[in-house]
Write a structure and sequence with these properties.
Layout: H1 15-21, H2 56-61, H3 64-75, H4 79-85, E1 89-91, E2 94-96, E3 99-105, E4 110-116, E5 119-126, E6 139-148, E7 153-157, E8 164-167, H5 187-190, E9 196-203, E10 212-214, E11 219-220, E12 224-227, E13 233-235, H6 241-254, E14 260-263, H7 272-295, E15 300-303, H8 308-316, E16 321-326, H9 329-342, E17 350-352, H10 355-358, H11 362-365, H12 368-375, E18 379-381, E19 387-392, E20 396-402, H13 412-434, E21 438-443, H14 450-464, E22 471-473, E23 481-486, H15 493-497
Helix pairs in contact: 13-14
Length: about 525
């Protein structure tokens, strides 16, 4: 079995270069851009021809005192007002939102499609057999099989077919338990063969590579993430500053001393009661996990992530979603109960789709199948006639931008510039839809004007900012190449629908060896 990519794989040596290349986005639980904060209006100046008020007291009452109370009025508000505030927009009694979620259930698998308008932007598949491969977020009691000092890693048996890998940087330990101490103990000093450890999967097994583990466990809820035995304390930076202050004051009252906590973007306008309820449930969940770990004496699954649909809703659903449509009655009831428990104001956005009454399958009704077929092709057409060619290799993914049928109108530079702008937006969408991860190299068409290069790169970064997955983008080279990385969680969309060719073994060609006879 191969080791998964080490922590430094695909990362810049220079921290400054890595920081500049990072496409800024929320770290945990952020599902939408931060609301634009309107600048505070300046105090109105009296007109030159308007006489000043004779009442000095009245003048002060309209100025300083009003500004002083404005912040507290914004911070204050009953639970009912907070819940009403996060309901989102409605038109003619129906929810209005940018996104929509479709869940189609079949006996062999469940599919979840995320639509922006009518365009498919994300697609997930869950199968019963995925208990071996889709284990991201699961918590195990694992047994250390062997420690590799040269790789600063350890293989851990977690009860699955492939052993998972725990790197030195993901090891948590008590210094009192380490005999040979130094400024930074080595992994062989911290972990021993046959040792039982509590760990969580942070990356699914991919191909011949095993899953990746960490000992810093986190339990995600709807509004908060509990990090047991940690001092971590944070609030999503995508929330407005006033909302962050309100949530911080609540956390000061409800945060347990022995555990860390991170407040998600979904907690915007959440009440103290809702935050407390969510946190209490996570604490009870952690107590159950610890109790099961103390009783077990062999590799055991201690916590399993919820079903795909519930997991995606927990991570994504907000007021920007106009609805969730599900074609399975059992799952519809389960999801509606989940939403009713945490966000009752959104319960009416969960709909049951009756295929027998509608006459079409859910994915056919919303043209998801049509868009999926296009997403499985290596060629993607752009609106003006240009095209993208997307090729996967063992080490990286290569995307080639072509003008194709796009002949332009004025001059070559203008034609190439607009073609690259269209490509930048479409590439960001395709990366998200196809779930392409790892190292990605994009061959934009050469542009002579440096300002055009800058504008294409900025447009590409703006389009990537809507993607919740961590990305890094570097400057366009003199050859017109853009190097970037996107965090790899799964194997990608293509793997869900394809198997390697049994004839060419995925190479794409067959060899004629007759000349060697």
């Amino acid at each position: 079995m191969e080791l998964p990519d080490p922590p430094r794989e695909g990362k810049m040596v220079s921290p400054q270069a890595a920081s500049e290349a990072l496409v800024r986005k929320p770290q945990i639980g952020d599902t939408r851009p931060a609301p634009v904060m309107a600048p505070k209006p300046e105090a109105a100046k009296p007109a030159a021809d308007k006489p000043k008020s004779k009442s000095r007291r009245g003048g002060r009452r309209g100025g300083r005192n009003r500004r002083r109370t404005g912040g507290s009025e914004q911070m204050a508000g009953s639970d009912a007002e907070l819940i009403e505030r996060r309901r989102g927009k409605e038109r003619n009694g129906k929810a209005v939102g940018r996104y929509m979620m479709c869940v189609q259930v079949r006996e062999e698998f469940t599919q979840v499609a995320m639509l922006e308008g009518r365009s498919l932007i994300e697609h997930y598949v869950s199968r019963p057999a995925d208990d071996e491969t889709q284990i991201h977020g699961n918590i195990y009691l694992g047994r250390v099989q062997n420690v590799l000092p040269g790789m600063e890693a350890a293989f851990v048996d977690i009860g699955t077919q492939k052993n998972a890998v725990l790197y030195r940087g993901d090891v948590q330990f008590d210094k009192d338990d380490v005999v040979e101490q130094g400024p930074d103990p080595r992994i062989e000093q911290v972990l021993k063969s046959r040792q039982l450890i509590l760990c969580q999967v942070t990356k699914n097994p991919i191909g011949a590579k095993g899953g990746r583990l960490t000992q810093e466990v986190s339990l995600p809820g709807r509004f908060v993430v509990l990090i047991p035995d940690s001092r971590t304390y944070g609030i999503s930076k995508r929330l407005p500053e006033g909302e962050r202050r309100r949530l911080r004051s609540i956390l000061d009252r409800i945060k347990p001393e022995e555990h860390g906590i991170i407040v998600r973007t979904a907690a915007e306008n959440a009440t103290e009661h809702e935050l407390t309820t969510d946190l209490t449930r996570l604490l009870e969940q952690w107590a159950t996990i610890r109790e099961a770990a103390t009783k077990a004496n062999s590799p055991t699954l201690l916590y399993r992530e919820p079903p795909l649909a519930v997991r995606v809703i927990r991570e994504e659903f907000s007021s920007e979603y106009r609805g969730i449509v599900i074609d399975d009655r059992k799952l519809y009831n389960e999801v509606r109960d989940y939403i009713q428990a945490f966000n009752p104001e959104f319960a009416d956005r969960v709909e049951y789709y009756d295929q027998s009454a509608e006459g079409l399958a859910l994915f056919e009704q919303h043209r998801v199948h049509e868009q999926l077929r296009k997403a499985l092709d290596k060629k993607v057409w752009l609106p003006s006639g240009g095209s993208l060619i997307i090729e996967h290799t063992e080490a990286l993914t290569v995307i080639d931008v072509n003008t194709g049928k796009n002949v332009g109108k004025s001059n070559l530079e203008e034609t190439v510039f607009h073609n690259n702008l269209e490509a930048a937006d479409e590439i960001a969408r395709q990366l998200r839809l196809r779930d392409i991860g790892g190292i990605i190299v994009i061959d934009f068409i050469d542009m002579e004007v440096r300002e055009n290069r800058r504008r294409v790169l900025e447009a590409f970064k703006d389009a990537l900012a809507r993607d919740k997955t961590r990305t890094q983008v570097f400057e366009i080279s003199e050859l017109g190449l853009v190097e970037m990385t996107r965090k790899r969680i799964g194997e990608g969309l293509l793997t869900n629908f394809a198997d390697p060719c049994v004839v060419c073994e995925g190479r794409g060609v067959t060899l004629d060896l007759s000349m060697l006879d």
